[in-house]
Specification:
Structural class: mainly alpha
Oligomer: single chain
Helix content: over 70%
Number of domains: 1
Distance between the termini: 7 Å
Strand order of the largest sheet: 1-2-3
Number of helices: 15
Radius of gyration: 21 Å
Order of helices and strands: HHHHHEEEHHHHHHHHHH
Strand content: under 5%
Length: about 350
């Protein structure tokens, strides 16, 4: 047994961790350029160290124990989401953060992982594909996290939670007739959902369709982001030499639009390499899922891969004007403690699934 574990790299998915480390290094270098070093960069290093520690701690927890207590973990995160409305810190028109002494956390980030753990157990216990008669189980589970996040308001994370849940349910399987009915219901609901969006959320959708129509407000972010990306050319302008970012034209350059900083400095070639790294990270997480010891491990690792993939696709989509701006961070690139730690905790779950197979 010991020899087999050592042959697998000591029970660690080394290719997955290697790619994760590369993304982390690229993220720190880019953030240093975007912020000029200083306190934000130093805090990001601290968040990475905390995240790496949490990742390895979580990786040594037996996956069966996590399955046993998954609903308790999910309930705890829901309580944190409720606490946001009572003692939460408001910023930029939203109340999403809890202050814990010297730092603050965003519970909705952790809700995604907690949801994966709880939803995976429902999927394991489901016999056969889902139908309209038994879809209520995942719906009841997902609804509290979705609506509590939506009310903050945080439309981007709420849609992430919904997309994550739908993807995992589809992995399990949905009867064709039920899928058609659900699709029709969604089409009917969409016009009513538009009426209940916040004014700034509507502006973001308008900015996605026609940025020039709101060039001085909601469309400004997208226009400047696309300009920065395009100005990078094939090879980029070099480290800390991006004119659009140096001259402060790109808003939120250290958070949601950090890819614009990277693309301007590293150009098309660098951007392709970064996209390949994220794509490889998702593929490697899915490869761990495919070889999981049991169904629960399969759904957990798949859920983490979906979270990584959605964050990556949505962030790049909005910075390039292919999707509306919804405030989704780029994993290990965007500044933010909750996002960084959640990314590493997800990696810890992938390692745990891998160790359960090789241990």
């Amino acid at each position: 047994m010991k020899a087999r574990v050592l042959s697998k790299g000591g029970g660690l998915p080394l290719p997955f961790l290697f790619v994760l480390a590369l993304v982390m290094i690229v993220g720190l270098v880019t953030l240093f350029s975007a912020t000029g070093g200083g306190s934000l960069f130093q805090r990001q290093i601290l968040w990475n160290l905390i995240g790496i520690t949490a990742m390895f701690f979580l990786s040594f927890i037996d996956l069966r124990r996590l399955e046993r207590y998954c609903h308790f973990i999910y309930l705890l995160v829901l309580l944190l989401l409720l606490l946001v409305f009572i003692k939460g810190k408001a910023a930029m028109g939203a109340q999403r953060w809890l202050h814990l002494g010297l730092f603050r956390v965003q519970p909705s980030e952790f809700a995604k992982l907690a949801l994966v753990l709880a939803l995976a157990r429902i999927l394991v216990n489901q016999e056969g594909k889902f139908s309209l008669r038994n879809l209520w189980k995942p719906l009841v589970l997902v609804a509290p996290a979705f609506f509590l996040t939506l009310l903050q308001p945080d439309l981007g994370t709420a849609l992430m939670i919904l997309a994550l849940s739908v993807t995992l349910v589809l992995v399990k399987g949905v009867e064709p007739k039920s899928a058609v009915v659900i699709g029709l219901v969604v089409l009917v609901i969409l016009p009513f959902a538009w009426q209940h969006l916040k004014p700034y959320q509507k502006k973001r959708i308008v900015a996605f369709i026609n940025p020039q129509a709101v060039a001085t407000s909601a469309g400004y972010h997208v226009i400047q982001s696309k300009t920065a990306i395009g100005s990078g050319g094939i090879w980029g302008k070099g480290f800390s030499k991006g004119s659009q970012t140096r001259l402060q034209f790109v808003p939120e350059k250290h958070t949601d639009f950090i890819f614009s900083v990277f693309a301007e400095e590293r150009g098309f070639v660098g951007s392709v390499i970064l996209i390949a790294l994220y794509f490889l990270l998702v593929i490697l997480a899915l490869s761990v899922a495919a070889k999981a010891r049991d169904a629960y491990g399969l759904y957990v690792a798949t859920g983490v891969a979906v979270i990584y993939g959605l964050h990556f696709a949505i962030n790049l989509g909005m910075t390039m004007g292919l999707l509306p701006v919804v405030g989704v961070p780029l994993p290990l690139m965007s500044y933010g403690g909750s996002s960084v730690i959640t990314t590493y905790l997800g990696a810890g779950l992938v390692i745990s699934v891998y160790r359960a197979r090789t241990g």
